[in-house]
Design goal:
The chain has 77 residues and is an all-alpha fold. The protein has one helix and no strands.
């Protein structure tokens, strides 16, 4: 009877160790995913800033062109 209990206890301990090992592997994967997502977020923020700057440049250029067109129209009249 005692031997059976020890075997059951050993099996449960082995299962717990396997479960802990699997959970540790999942944690490591999640940590890697977190780092990758942080890098991707940083890259996207950088791209967003660059695109916003380009957008502002285009708006400034278009405003200048519209101003020149309006000025030319006033000179024609």
């Amino acid at each position: 009877m005692t031997f059976e209990l020890l075997e059951k206890l050993e099996n449960k301990i082995n299962q717990a160790v396997e479960t802990i090992a699997l959970l540790q592997m999942e944690i490591e994967e999640l940590k890697e995913d977190k780092v990758n997502l942080a890098n991707k977020t940083e890259q996207l923020q950088s791209d967003n800033e660059r695109l916003n700057a380009e957008h502002q440049q285009w708006q400034d250029r278009l405003s200048a062109l519209v101003g020149k067109i309006e000025q030319a129209e006033e000179n024609v009249e």
